[in-house]
Amino acid sequence: MSTLGRLFGKSPFTPLQTHMAKVTECVRKSKELFTLLEARDYDGIAKLAKKISKLEHAADLTKIELRNNLPRGIFLPVHRSNILEVLTLQDSLADKAEDIGILLTFRNIILYPEIMDAFSEFLSKNYEAFERVWKVIDQIDELVEFSFSGLEAVKVNEMVEEVAFAEYEADKLQRTLMKILYNMDTQKVAIAEFILIIQLVQEIAQLSNLSEKLAYRVRMMLEIK
User: Fold this and answer.
1) Residue 148 gets which letter from DSSP?
2) Residue range 104-116: average pLDDT?
3) DSSP calls for 67-101
4) What is the CATH number of the domain that holds 22?
5) Model confidence, pTM
6) Which of 166, 152, 148 is nearest to 82 (CA)?
7) Which letter does DSSP use for residue 11 in this model?
8) Torsion over CA of 84, 85, 90 and 91, rounded to 10 degrees?
9) Which residue segment(s) compose the domain that 88 sits in?
10) What is the mean pLDDT of the chain?
C-alpha cells in the first residue's frame, strides 16, 4: 500500500480479507453437508444448515461494517467502487452457501448410485474453484503493495486463470451430471426429489461461477489502480 494510503485512510484490504475469511467458513461448512447427505443424516443436515445461516449473518455484519467505514477520500489505493464490487461478490458466495444448506432441508433427498461419481467430481471441482479464489483474496494486500507489477502481476494472472480453469472444468462436469440425471429411471425418483436435485446442482454450480467472477474482478481492480 502507498504512503499516502497509510496516511490518509485505513487499508480496505484487511477488512476484505476478514470478510472473505467469514465467507470461507460458510462455504467450507456447506461442503460438509454432502458428507451428511451421503450418510442420510438429515437431522445433522438441518443443524448444520442453521449453523451456516448464522455464519452467513456474521459475514453480513462484517460486510456492513466495511461498507460503513470504507474511506471516501481520494487517497484509497484503488477505486472505492471496485472494492465494493469485490465485497458484493464475496457476499454472494456466502449467500450461495446458505442457499445450498436451506435447499437440503426442504426434502430428504438421496444421492443415488447412478449419479454418485459424477456428482462427487462436480462438487469437488466447484469447491476447488472457491479455494483458489480465496488464495487470491488472501494475497491481495501484497499485490497492491508491490503495485501489481513484475513477478507479482504474473503470479496473480496465473492464480486467476487457475480459478477460471476450475470453473470451466466444473461446467463440463455439470453437463455430464445433468445428462445422467435426465436419463435416470423416472419410476425410481419422485418428481419433487428430481426437481430439488436439479436445483441443488444449479446452486452448487454458482460457487465456481461466482469464484471466477470474483477472481476477474480482483485482477481488474489491481490493473487499473
Assistant:
1) T
2) 93
3) HHH---STT-SS-HHHHHHHHHHHHHHHHHHHHHH
4) 1.20.58.220
5) 0.89
6) 148
7) -
8) 70
9) 3-223
10) 87
